[in-house]
Please model this.
Amino acid sequence: MTDRNLPIGEDELQAFVDERLDGARRAAVEAHLAAHPDLAERIGTERRQRAMLRSRLDAKFAEPVPSRLRIANLRATRRASWARGWTSAAAAVAIFVCGATAGWFANRITPASAPIAPTASVAQGAQAAYRTFVVEVAHPVEVGVQQEAHLLQWLSKRLGRKLAAPDLSPFGYRLMGGRLLPGGSGAAAQLMYDDASGRRLTIYVRAAEGTETAFRFQKESEASTFAWIDQGFGFAVTAPASREELLPIAEAVYRGFEGKS
Amino acid sequence: MQDILTTLDQLPEEQKSLLLLVGVEDLSYDDAAKVMGVPVGTVMSRLARGRQKLRALLETGRTTLLRRVK
Model:
């Protein structure tokens, strides 16, 4: 095949990464890569990274996301206004995906205007984390419930406290997974639960000074939080629920953690 | 651990859009060129540069966000 003798250019390598070459040219590129291990490694990495992007965004679109972000609707937008619409739609996806994380860090560096009580600080941290991650569709949790044992072991190690996931099934909530976050001067753990209707509840734990155990209630827009401190750790339960609905859940979580440090 | 989506967000807008349009959304190079209003050659070189940059960022870890604070 004469095709095999044509030089391999960067455009062709990109088409190879995108799996768009036909049989003859693909074979030529593969032969070229076999003879050039450094290049083969680079192209292999680019292929893997392309696959990672696809799988991350595929997973995202497999979730019940708001309709304005669904691919079908993005395509409709593209038909409506071909040139600008589609480019900015792609950008919007990237911004939506990455914005949540950026928002979280922006939140953390906002200086507190005055010293605040430890429970208030825990409640604020919990609410900031709730606001940031409860709206996440692509990766609301860093480690999913399928790896619950690993998740709890990991978070326990990072927190310096044995962490169990309280059973909230009596309230209709089941564990989705959890993540590690910056919290106070160390790490914080967030466990996320959801119920059949998709409502999400989080339990937030981090090291905190103080021995007080009184519940502190705080409501911010939709989300209510009960926070308390017990034996050097702050706990908070946050959900879009009324004080009356949330209190028994907070009490169950409190009992679940009590004396297990 | 680097998050690829967070890292992607650090690329210049035109490279980021192309990596999504071509790499994820499977737009043809010609269509991507039309959408971006540039020649196909520019699409190809931006794609190559974007992928090179993404790879470099992920490899060197310069973009590490403090996800795990100690």
Notes: Residues 21 and 35 of chain B are 9 Å apart (CA to CA). Chain B is about 65% helix and 0% strand. The two ends of chain B are 15 Å apart (CA to CA).
